[in-house]
Amino acid sequence: MNSHVLGFPRVGSQRELKRGVEKFWKGQLSEKELVLIAEELKEKHWAMQSRLDMVATGDFSFYDQMLDTIAMLGAVPPRFEWDGKEIGLDTYFKMARGDASKNIPAMEMTKWFDSNYHYIVPEFTQGMTFKQSTSEQIETVRHAKACGYIPKPVLIGPITFLMLGKEFDGCNRWNYLDAIIDVYVNVLRELTEETEWIQIDEPVLCLDLPEEAKKAFSKAYNKLSKAVSGSHLLLATYFGELADNLDLTMSLPFDALHVDLVRGGNELKSVINSLPVGRLLSLGVVDGRNIWKNNLKATLELIKPAVDELGEDKLMIASSCSLLHSPVDLEFETELPLELRDWMAFAVQKCEELAVLRDAVNGCDVSSRLTANADSMAAREKSSLRVNLDVRAAAAGITPQMMQRESPFEKRIEEQKAWLKLPVFPTTTIGSFPQTTEIRKTRLDFKKGNIDKAQYEEAMQQEIRHVVDEQDKLGLDVYVHGEPERNDMVEYFGQQMNGFCFTKNGWVQSYGSRCVKPPIIYGDVSRPEAMTVDWIKYAQENSSKPMKGMLTGPVTILCWSFERDDLSREDICRQIALAIREEVLDLEAAGIKIIQIDEAALREGMPLRASQRDEYLQWAVDCFRITSSGVGDDTQIHSHMCYSEFNTIAKWIAKMDADVISIEASRSGMDLLQAFKDFEYPNDIGPGVYDIHSPRVPSEEEIYELLKKAVKVIKPARLWVNPDCGLKTRDWPETRASLVNMVAAAKKLRQEFS
Questions:
Q1: Nearest Cα to 123, choosing from 83, 86, 58, 74?
Q2: Which residues pair with 610 in a beta bridge?
C-alpha cells in the first residue's frame, strides 16, 4: 500500500511565502527573488513528505490554486488587458488584488466549500477563449524529480473549476467545456511523460450536482483518461460523501479514486462494493482540516474491510483532503503545555502518521508506534482538562426564552431610532481600522514584557483616540473603537476564555498572503471576566457619537478555530454562545447601546448537502440568538457576514433577528442583494460598498452607483452604508480616501431622498 497527501501547506512554517509576496508587492523584492523563495519552500515541503511514497506538486501557489488554474487556462478577464503571452506575476496578482493604478477591480473571492480558505472565483463571459498560458505544472514536476522525489502533480478538476465560477452577461459556462478540456489534455500529455500518477481534484462530486455537471463529467473524463495514457489518473473527492453521485463517480474512467473517510467514513462499504475491478482506492483517513492526532488503532479497524476485500496492493493511504488547512509543524510549538501538545499533529506529523499506517498494513513492525499512540489516546480520554461540569449544566439549562428579544423588530427599531437620530443611509465601518507596524510592535512588546501594562494601555488608548478623531473628520454616523488591541477577531476572544489554547507558529492560509492562527478548542468553554468592555467604554467616553461594541459570534469562533473532536459542534457552539451572551450584557450595562456580533462564518459552516442544512442552520441561528436576545429593545444588535452566497439562507438570516446586518457585496456588484429582495428581508441591512481586500480606492461615483443599485432592492429607510469588511489589513491613506468617497456618496444619495 502506497501513501500520499492530497496537498501540503504552502506558506511555510515561518510564513516565508507571506513575507516574500508582501515585499514583492511593495517593490522590496524582485520577481526573481520571490521565485527563489518559492523554489526553496517547495524543496522544504517535499522533504517533509519524504517518508511518503509520492510528493504533491502543483499544490504550491503564490496566491490561490484556483487563480493558478485561471492562469493555466488563460481565462483572464478582459479588464486586465492581458497580452495573451505566458502569464507572469504582474497579471496574476492584478487578477487577485486589482490594479489600483488603473482603478481596475479585483476578481471576486469567496470561501472554498465549507472551509475558511478563500479562492478567486473564475469569471465566464461571452466570447471567451482558452489556451495553456503557464508552464508551472511541468516545471515543478521536473524540479521535484531533480531533487530525487517521485512527484504526483495536483490539478483542480475542470468540472469543479466550471461549477465554482460565475457567469456574466447571460453566458452559459457549460458552452466552454470542450475548450477547457482541450487545455487540460495538453497539460496532462506533458505531465504523462514525466510522472506515474496525476491527481485531479473534483470535490464537487460531494455536492448536489445539477444535470449539466453530471453530463459534463462523463464527457470530460472520457477525454482526460485518454490524455494520461501511460500514466495513472487519481480522481480525488473530499469534504463529504459521494452519496447520490456514487454511481456517476464509479462510471468515470479513473485508475484510482480518493474518498474522504474523515467526513464520509460511513460510505466505505458502498464504495468498496461499487469500485470497478482493477481500480485502486485511496483512503483519506488522516484529517487534513484539524490538528488532533490520529487514532491509529481505530483507523486500522476502519480500513480493515478495504484491506480484506481489495488487498493492500489495491489501496493507497492518504490525508482526507489537502493539508493546506493544517499548520506546518508541531515541533515549533515548544510553549504549548506538554499534555495538550501530545494530543496534536500538524502537517509534518500527519505525514508520519500516514507512513506508520502504511507500514502497519504492509506488515512492518510498528508496534512501538501503535502502543505510544494508544497511550496518548487513553491519556486524552481521561484528562480533567476536557470537562467543566458547571459549563455543561449551564448549556443544558438554556431555555427558549433566552433566544427571544422582548419585542418584534418593528417596535424595537422605533425605540432605537428615537435615541440614535441617524440620517437616512447612515454610515459606519465594520469594526477594525488599519493596524500599523507601531500597533503590532506595541502588542508584541507587551507580550514579551518589554513594556508594562500601564504603558500598553496608554498606547492602545492613544490609538483609540486617534481612530475617534479620524471618524470625526470623515463624518461617519456610527463609530467603532478600531480594535487596536486585537490580533485577530477569533484569537483575541479565545485567549480570554477557558477551554482554548494557542500556538506560536500554527499559521494557516486564509487567502493570498493573509494567514490566521486558529485557536484550538480542547475543553469546555467559559468566560472568566469581561473581554472588551473597558476598551469600548473608553472609546465612548471620547465621543458623543454612538459607539458600536464589537464582538465575534459563536458560530464564527467555532468555525475559525480547530474544534475539539470529542463533542458535537452544536454543543461546543452553545457553550461559546453563553460566554458571548455574558459579554453582550456587560456591554449594555456599561452604556454601549449598539453591539455588533459578527457571524462571518455562518454560511461557510453550513453542510455541503442541502438535505443536511436546516438542522445546522437551526442550531447556528439559535446560538446567535442566545448571545443577542438578553438586551433591551433600545439596544441595537448588528451582525456582519462576508464571502457568502445568501440566496439559500436569507430566511435563516432573518431568523437571527439582528436589527442590522452588513454583508460583503461590492465584488459581486450588489448581485448578492437579490437574495434579500426575493425573500423580502424585513430588517435593516448594510451591503458593503467597497472591497477592503484590494488596495484600490473606489471613486465616489462608483460607490454612489452601487448604492443606487442597492436602493432598488432595499428600502431607503432600511439601508446602511459601510465597507465590505474590517479595515485592519489596509493602510491609512487608502482607508481615508475610500471612506471620504463612501461618506460623500451617502450624502449625495441623501439629497435625492430628503
A1: 74
A2: none
State which residues of the chain have pLDDT below 70.
Answer: 643-645, 667-669, 672
Helix/strand/coil percent split, the chain, to 5: 50, 15, 40
Rounded alpha-carbon distances, angstroms, from residue 53 to 199, 296, 319, 358, 606: 14, 19, 13, 10, 35
Which residues, including other chains, have CB under 8 Å from residue 346's CB and lie 6 or more apart?
Answer: 291, 326, 327, 328, 329, 330, 506
pLDDT score for 340: 97
Torsion region of 657: left, alpha or beta (phi above 0 gives left; psi -120 to 50 gives alpha): left
For cell 499548520, name the residue: 327
Quote the CA–CA distance of 689 and 723 in Å, as a whole number.
Answer: 5
Which residues are bridge partners to 281 per DSSP? 257, 315
Q: How far is 559 from 602, CA to CA, in rounded Å? A: 8
- Give the pairing of strands 151-156 and 197-201: parallel
**584 neighbors 626 (Cβ within 8 angstroms):** no
Kindly list the distances between the CA atom of residue 436 and the CA atoms of 24, 432, 442, 705, in Å, as whole numbers in the listed order: 19, 12, 10, 31
- Specify the pairing of strand 197-201 against strand 232-236: parallel
User: Is the model's pTM score more than 0.90?
Assistant: yes
φ and ψ at residue 292, rounded to 5 degrees: -85, 145
* Residue burial 602-627, b: 16+ Cβ < 10 Å; e: rest: bbbbbbbeeeebeebbebbbbbbbbb
| H/E segment holding residue 317 | strand 315-319
pLDDT value of position 648: 76
DSSP state at residue 290: -
Distance CA 669, CA 448 (A): 45
Instruction: Give the integer Cα–Cα distance in Å for 374 and 268.
Output: 24
pLDDT at 669: 67
Pair 284, 318: CB distance under 8 Å: yes
Whole-number pLDDT of residue 100 = 85
* Segments of 669-742 assigned E as strands: 684-687
Contact between residue 153 and residue 191 where contact means Cβ atoms under 8 Å apart? yes
Say what the pLDDT of residue 664 is: 81
Q: Looking at residue 667, what is its pLDDT?
A: 63
Q: What is the pLDDT of residue 693?
A: 79
Enumerate residues 6+ apart whose C-beta is below 8 A from 747. Answer: none
User: Which residue in 655, 514, 525 sits closest to 577, CA to CA?
Assistant: 525
118 as an active site residue: the answer is: no
Under 8 Å CB-to-CB from 92, ≥6 apart: which residues?
Answer: 62, 63, 67, 71
> What would the grid cell of residue 247 be?
454511481
Q: Which helix (H) or strand (E) holds 740?
A: helix 732-753
Pairing between strand 151-156 and 55-57? parallel
CA distance 7 to 328: 12
Q: Can you list the positions of beta strands (E) in 354-507?
A: 498-501
- Out of 232, 258, 325, 693, the active site residue is 693
Phi, psi values for residue 585, rounded to 5°? -65, -35
